[in-house]
Amino acid sequence: MTNLAVTSLTESSTLTNRITRAATLIIALSLFFFLTSCAVNPATGSANLVLMSESREKEIGLEEHEKVLASMPLFEDEELLAYVREVGNKAAAVSHRPNLKYTFNIIDSPEINAFALPGGYVYVNRGLLTFMNSEAELAAVLSHEIGHITARHAVQQQARGRIAQTAATVGGFVTAVATGSGYVGSQISEVASIWAQTGLSGFGRENELEADSLAAEYLVKAGYDPAAMIDVITVLKNQEDFNRLVSNNSGGYHGLFATHPRNDTRLQQAIAQVSDISGNQITQTDNTLFRERLDGLVIGQSQRSQTQDARNRYYQALLGYTVVFPDEWQIDETTTTVTASNAEQGTIRIEAQRIQENIEPRLFIRDKLGISQLQKSEKLEQYRLLGHTGVAVSPETGNTQRIASIYLGPRVFTFRAEITDADSIDEIDEELLASIRTFRAIQQGEISSGTEAKIKFVQASEFFDFAVVAQSSRIANYPEESLRLLNGYYPRGTPEAGEWVKLIE
Fold first, then answer.
1. Structure pTM?
2. Residue 164 lies in a domain
3. Fewer CB near the last or first residue (10 Å), C or N of the chain?
4. Residue 18: which pLDDT band, with cuts at 50, 70 and 90?
């Protein structure tokens, strides 16, 4: 009994010592982070939590920049790129880190976005440029991203991530020694992709507001009207409202496009404060070069950015849907029916009809199509559309059929795909199912033709009417609304005679 008692006492003492050492480690680490992480924010002058030197920040930025170039195509327009760089450098030159080398690039994407990486890397999507209506608005977007860089927001987020990671690791160690189990390592994943995550999705409300305030200051110092920031927000909030109206999906924009309501009091105050900076005047008001550089800019998918499925994408503008048929399948259409076929493989037929009853797509197939024996039965939940699909045997031909029903607006779209090649049923069925999964509503502003659509600036006459112009527009869905959004006149309003407006050609 004595030996057992001694052993127990020894183990208890050992465990206590281990916990004590772990607790000491926590205190030491906490003290280390406190002593090493207090750095002055170069933009605001306040103390911020950082765990990285400026030289390392630049190294990280270069590494992540190379990843961006490897994963995102750049828009190849040297004159437009030179112009974007010129505008961006105007803001960078009056920023709090003017000696940092800034790199500006245009991403060949129709998505409306802009983002920044540490070390001076700024990216703006081609899709965002199409919605800009002045050089000042472009400068506002670039200045916002520069604000993130000058305030080292990505570095701050990385520091917070590192501390959280270390705390979790030490906490796991304390738990391990307290329970007598073996040490199992870190309890959370590495924060290696913090740069991309924050760059593409935003830095949080306070950081975004800080970037906005800095952007307003840089705009004033560079000779631009800081109210252009409000103009940008208004244009893109209108886009957001329209998307919500037509698709019940507001989507989301990065940075200043996502974080502010239309009348953000704090942002209004920030703009008012910087507008009073003595010795600064609004000098950048000529938009001639802006129009020259954006005239002819591709809107929507460019030929380079088009995915492979664009080769056989079909648009049904009357019913408002689009779908990608298998390669080398021939397409025939009527008002309510579309058929794609391949003589060696089979056919796929799409029919539309009004929804008469509020029943599930699966029950529609069973009760309305009369197909009770459905194999490979599964839900379809694509592009926020509800549907169902499965495989059945055609009672007329005995061939295998891929059946689907998808609800879009007030209509149900029925797919009947019959496979005629009995030796390749599984392969063809996979191809047909992949085609069905591409079915979606035509997006706002999407062009029905496979060729590139481009912006063209014209001066409005005294009789200019968006509704009239929309009748001959190449925009397949909601042409009037799309033109209004592009020009900052959504949901109503008419440009004055002589005012420059963007059309699509």
1. 0.63
2. no
3. N
4. low
Least confident of 9-23, 269-283, 490-504: 9-23
Spatial separation of the C-alpha atoms in residues 305 and 447, rounded to whole Å: 14
Nearest to 211 by CA among 252, 250, 260: 260
* Per-residue model confidence as pLDDT tens digits over 232-253: 888 878 887 887 776 654 444 4
Same domain? 225 vs 373: no
> What letters, b where the CB count within 10 A reaches 16 and e where it falls short, cover 289-320?
ebeebbeebbbbbbeebeeeeeebbbbbeebb
Domain that holds residue 268: 54-155+203-296
User: How many residues make up the chain in this entry?
Assistant: 505
pLDDT of residue 143: 96
pLDDT level of residue 124 (50, 70, 90 thresholds): very high
Write down the pLDDT at residue 99. 94
Residues 354 and 468 reside in one and the same domain: no
- Exposed / middle / buried, residue 484 (Cβ in 10 Å: 0-12, 13-18, 19+): buried
DSSP assignments along 324-350, one per residue: EPPTT-EEEE-SSEEEEEETTTEEEEE
- Residue 505, pLDDT > 50, answer yes
Are the C-beta atoms of residues 145 and 257 closer than 8 Å to each other? Answer: no
Alpha-carbon span 77 to 341, nearest angstrom: 39
- Domain co-membership, 341 together with 400: yes
Task: Report the C-alpha gap between 41 and 53 in whole angstroms.
Answer: 12
pLDDT at 308: 46
Q: Which of 110, 120, 124, 130 is nearest to 200 (CA)?
A: 124
Distance (Å, whole) CA 315 – CA 140: 36
Say which residue, 52 or 193, is predicted with more confidence: 52
- Same structural domain for residues 256 and 134? yes
SS3 content of the chain, % helix, strand, coil (to 5): 45, 20, 35
As a whole number of angstroms, the distance between CA 454 and CA 183 comes to 60
Same domain assignment for residues 265 and 123: yes
Number of domains making up the chain: 3
Distance between CA 315 and CA 441 in Å, rounded?
9
- DSSP per residue over 375-421, as a string? EEEEEEEETTEEEEEEEEE-TTT--EEEEEEEEETTEEEEEEEEE--
Q: What is the largest CA-CA distance in the chain?
A: 106
Alpha helices in 122-264 (DSSP H): 126-129, 135-150, 153-179, 194-201, 205-221, 228-247, 256-259
CB within 8 Å of 120: residues ≥ 6 apart: 58, 61, 92, 97, 100, 101, 102, 103, 149
Cα(172)–Cα(186) distance, integer angstroms:
7
For residue 72, being part of any structural domain is answered with yes
Report whether 140 contacts 229 (CB < 8 A).
yes
Q: How far apart are CA 140 and CA 145, in angstroms?
A: 9
Residues 130 and 254 grouped into a single domain: yes
Write the CA distances from 414 to 247, 317, 323, 378, 458, integer angstroms.
21, 17, 13, 15, 43
Same-domain pairing of 429 and 448:
no
